[in-house]
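To illustrate the input format used throughout this study, we show a single complete record. The first block contains the structure-token representation of the backbone; no residue identities are included at this stage. The design step must infer an amino acid for every position from geometry alone.
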């Protein structure tokens, strides 16, 4: 009897679910009326915010949708809305298209130069608060208007959001070319003790065949405001400390010619301590690499891999050390906490926190060791 009752019980549940499935849409928005926002660019204007959305909508590709405002040949639409708040600007996008904007698939947020001159969280707060928006879109700052980047024409008719996402993906991050970040860690850095965060600085390059993007520079933020920029060398130097590298190329002048090392692994050890009144950051960086190329033709021993260039590895360590020290000095000048020293002070040396937190970046000393070694 007990077995028969169990079968009846499960059949009743199955029947209920079938009735619910075929009679109710569970409050889901009709996909034909939904605008899937894949990228958003935000610029600050005198009267408020200018928001540019890149939209992929099934209605724009089907015969029922017809031609929509700003529709491109690849089925995407670029639509702009303005408002005193980001939410109002997004509502203007809705009003122009007649689509309900869905933010859960938004993978890219671009922040314009005018927005970065003030506190970027005047705009980013909306995405942190909105329960229907993803909290992990890729972030990038721009010089000039961010909305103009969404008007780019990538090669092979690739969607702009996809082209930007590839530039900001894990692959460039692994080779040290881009210091990629998303909304969540950037917000954590903003609300941390050091109030210092960074994101890629993306730009558009027009070439024959289409527009390409470059994100090798890095924008530095203090209290949500952009305070500085790292060039390509500075980005790579900081990436060696912050991220695990795989198959990253490092080129330097050594023994009278250009040489390239292929970094296959890097090991980082960071330790913060206070010695009397001197806060110190100790960094030990070890990189394991193979010599892969030089600027001139090579002899048979070099081509076969039998030739060892021990001096090259020593020179590489010295060169990279100078680049890291240059980044450290630049960050001190603009009061940017590049190594989260204030956070480490709060965590590991809390008894000194109240006394040193305001002047820590200025007083911080760097004890740095950088070494290259052949991987085999």
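Output of the design step:
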């Amino acid at each position: 009897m007990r077995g028969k009752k169990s079968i009846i019980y499960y059949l009743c549940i199955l029947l209920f679910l079938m009735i619910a499935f075929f009679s109710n849409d569970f409050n889901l928005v009709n996909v034909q009326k939904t605008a899937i926002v894949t990228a958003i660019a935000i610029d600050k204007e005198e009267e408020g915010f200018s928001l540019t959305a890149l939209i992929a909508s099934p209605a724009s590709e089907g015969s029922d949708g017809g031609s929509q405002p700003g529709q491109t040949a690849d089925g995407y639409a670029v639509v702009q809305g303005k408002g005193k708040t980001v939410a109002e600007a997004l509502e203007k996008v809705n009003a122009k298209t007649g689509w309900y904007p869905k933010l859960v698939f938004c993978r890219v947020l671009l922040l314009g130069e005018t927005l970065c001159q003030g506190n970027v969280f005047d705009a980013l707060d909306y995405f942190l608060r909105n329960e229907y928006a993803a909290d992990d879109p890729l972030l990038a700052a721009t010089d000039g208007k961010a909305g103009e980047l969404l008007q780019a024409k990538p090669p092979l008719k690739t969607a702009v959001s996809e082209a930007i996402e590839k530039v900001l993906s894990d692959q460039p991050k692994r080779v040290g070319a881009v210091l990629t970040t998303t909304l969540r860690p950037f917000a954590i850095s903003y609300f941390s003790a050091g109030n210092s965060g960074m994101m890629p600085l993306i730009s558009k390059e027009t070439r024959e065949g289409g527009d390409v993007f470059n994100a090798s520079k890095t924008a530095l933020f203090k209290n949500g405001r952009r305070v500085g920029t790292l060039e390509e060398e500075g980005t790579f130097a900081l990436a060696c400390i912050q991220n695990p590298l795989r198959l990253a190329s490092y080129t330097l002048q050594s023994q009278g010619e250009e040489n390239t090392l292929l970094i296959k692994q890097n090991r980082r050890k960071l330790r913060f301590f206070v010695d009397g009144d001197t806060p110190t950051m100790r960094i030990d960086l070890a990189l394991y690499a193979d010599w892969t190329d030089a600027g001139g033709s090579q002899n048979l021993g070099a081509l076969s891999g039998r030739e060892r260039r021990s001096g090259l590895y020593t020179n590489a360590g010295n060169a990279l050390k100078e680049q890291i020290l240059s980044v450290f000095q630049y960050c001190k000048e603009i009061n940017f906490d590049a190594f989260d020293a204030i956070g480490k002070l709060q965590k590991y040396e809390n008894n000194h926190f109240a006394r040193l937190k305001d002047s820590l970046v200025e007083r911080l000393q760097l004890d740095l060791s950088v070494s290259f070694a052949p991987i085999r």
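Structural context for interpreting the output: The mean pLDDT is 85. The CA atoms of residues 241 and 253 lie 22 Å apart.
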